[in-house]
Fold this protein.
Amino acid sequence: MSLRARILTLVGGFVAMTLVVMLFGLSTISDYNGMMAEYDRAAENAYRGERLNYLISSAVMESRGIYASRNPTETDTYAGRLDRDLDRIEAEIPQWHGESMADLTALEAKTRDFVAVRRDLSKVARAGSIKDAIAIGDRTRQSRMTFQADIERVVADTRTEMLKTRAHADTYRRERGISFAVVTLVWIAVTAGLALWLVSHFITREIDTARREAEAREKLLKELTQSNTELERFAYVASHDMQEPVRMVNIYSQMVLEDYQDAVDERGRKYLRTISAAATRMQAMILDLLAYSRMRNDHEEFSAVDLGDAVRQARGNLARLLDETGARIEAGMLPLAGGNPVQIQRLLENLIGNGIKYQPPGQTAVIHVSAVEAGDRWDITVEDNGIGIDPEFTEKVFEPFRRLHSWEEYPGTGLGLSICRKIAERHGGRIWVEPKPGPGTRVHFTLPHPPLLATPKTEAA
């Protein structure tokens, strides 16, 4: 082969290898950018869904303000806020089109129905018929709850898609990075220094740009997480500071009732008792809200917890309630579990207290606590003979402030089971209500085995 032919072969090989490497690199960049574009679209969908859910929740709260308004001025104020929220919801709808938001677009009809119903509610309330407004809210409550559940499902599905897309993009980048390194080494062997310069100057620079963009997105996510943490801290401080004024309202309303009962007619005394009862409920709600907010920031290390001792301590804390109701707590052989002793005791105390509280009139509560081994965890059951929970509410009862009964029927803040779920999840487990034939409720939750112990120790409670 002549020198000219050799040079032409070498140049042809160099050009071919250069084209192969460049096409490989460009396809990698294009595919990765496409994946990140899908991630951005999913993030936009999640943001739009969460904003819609926030606006709907705000509109529901303003509707409740209308229900509780005491004069036309208050009614107009809450109705004005409701109309403002509905205007914002309508402004959101056009932004769903043309942005790959098929899931949200599918909810457009329900969204417009919600706006129409709430605008009708606002008009009825402004016309002076609060009862009719309440009737509209009651009539559409189930469809509104189903609508919000659909929105939450869309947000959850979108976030799952985000995680899958990001994981796929990262895996793709790693695998392509390895393949690219092999191709680059071959290219370096054939093309020497010039080929290396082309790779470093063009392809590597583009990959670094994509990586920096990904790091910028990660930084934004961290800032959002920090912002959420600061909001939680603010909620904790605000709730803590609310205790004193509520306590003063309760104390002084009782003092007025006691010291000036002769100077106040029966209607006035009824109003004072209502104020005192409302302040008492608010105090209980604030205390439970503080406990709920602390749950996220409690970093106490886990240790071995004797569940039998935890049940005995819960029984001691509930001694007054047990004496008043005559309730019985039965517990078999309970094991050692791993966890935070204070939180586990709080979990058991909440479930046992619910079993005592939610009883038909005239019936004595009987609470049974048991545990069985389920793989690498313990499955603990708290069963009672109370009024039970309708199967359609077995998941909803764990939502914050979710109550199935009025305060007059069964007092409570609606945070007890939410705290129980937080505790179970912090221990890497879960909590659920098992359907039970006949009356009563059977609640299960799981806890890990104690750390550094191969054989769990059991004791009678």
Observations:
- The radius of gyration is 31 Å.
- The chain has eleven helices and eight strands.
- The longest strand covers residues 366-374.
